Amino acid sequence: MTQTWEQFQDMQPVVLKMFKNSLSKNRLAHAYLFEGMKGTGKKGASLLLAKSIFCLSPIDGYVSCETCLNCKRINHNNHPDVHMIEPDGQSIKKQQIRALQEEFSKTGVESNKKVYVIVHADRMTVNAANSLLKFLEEPHAETTAILITEQSQRMLPTILSRCQSITFKPLSVEIFIEQLKVNGVNEEMAAILARITHNLDEALAYSGDDWFVQAQKIVLKLYEVLKKNPLQAMVTLQEEWFPHFKEKDQLDLGLDILLLLLKDLLYIQLGKGEQMAFVMERNRLEPYSLQSSSRKLTDQITAVLESKRKLQANMNPQLLMEQLVLKMQEGSSFV
């Protein structure tokens, strides 16, 4: 989805101001690190910056016009001097960085300017990262590098030290809900999606997915069973949860939905019902909120967050969920 300066102003006003200052004063860094959560506009921003560098008719000297040949080619990923590298499978390989270096050793096809973007830069192999490091140590005067990551802590400190780091803040829930509504998502679903993901394409995919609708129902049922008939909870896991949340990313999403539910119960206690995700389920959730202490809900939230961490560490999903259900039944402090 093509991003414009106006859209970027709403999403990342601080980053936009920095871009404007650098472009208007012709003081771009030779290498940037765009870091932040998924869906905060990092990839779109990299193309926006590239368009501003190559635009043939910039507005006010630096805002890309979106109509010239260069802007159109960058939007269609076919400008000869703008290169984007993404993981080949699970990682970015040394050969990909070498091919980039060979390409950039040539004279620019249409000017001396060149831009390269590395998406998921944290997924570079050690050899790829070392190859890139040599590239960054001897930058060409008119080359701009943009490294994009959600996990900068996984990158070599020597690479980080050679980049100007720009942090992309999570989108406000209100802005994201409005974006979803403009794209045809009803308000109730938008309220949930805006708290699940910051990625518009991903949110729109979920909005039309029966699997996601069913996932919400299963999460709500599991919580109700825990409250009404704890002994039945393990049966619900076996009969409904595991058959539905089969993949690791599906289970992670299920835990995210459970987190939303627990936070909603806290919001009801605090008199902040307007901040709920499951707005339509308020009458259904209110009795459970009144039956739980804030301490118990906080402990349960902590347990779910710990389960998400264990999931990423590749703990057996079935064992993970069984342990989580037992902890939520206890209602005591969790380590």
Key words describing this protein structure:
8% strand; Zinc Finger, Delta Prime, domain 3; single chain; disordered C terminus; elongated; 335 residues; 2 domains; Rossmann fold; 16 helices; 57% helix; alpha/beta
Q: How would you describe this structure to a colleague?
A:
The protein is α/β, with parallel strands linked by helices and 335 residues long. It has 2 domains: 5-168, 3-Layer(aba) Sandwich (Rossmann fold), CATH 3.40.50.300; 209-330, Zinc Finger, Delta Prime, domain 3, CATH 1.20.272. It contains 16 helices and 5 strands. It has helices at residues 5-11, 13-24, 42-54, 69-75, 94-105, 126-137, 157-160, 173-182, 187-196, 200-207, 210-228, 233-244, 248-269, 282-291, 294-312, 317-330, and strands at residues 31-36, 82-85, 114-118, 143-149, 164-168. The protein has a 5-stranded parallel sheet, sandwiched between helices. Helix 3 (42-54) runs antiparallel to helix 4, helix 5 runs parallel beside helix 6 (126-137) and helix 13 runs antiparallel to helix 15.
Provide mean pLDDT, rounded: 91
Beta strand count: 5
User: H/E order of the elements?
Assistant: HHEHHEHEHEHEHHHHHHHHH
Just give the CATH class of the largest domain: Alpha Beta
Task: Give the helices and strands, then pairings.
Blueprint: H1 5-11, H2 13-24, E1 31-36, H3 42-54, H4 69-75, E2 82-85, H5 94-105, E3 114-118, H6 126-137, E4 143-149, H7 157-160, E5 164-168, H8 173-182, H9 187-196, H10 200-207, H11 210-228, H12 233-244, H13 248-269, H14 282-291, H15 294-312, H16 317-330
Parallel strand pairs: 1-4, 1-5, 2-3, 3-4
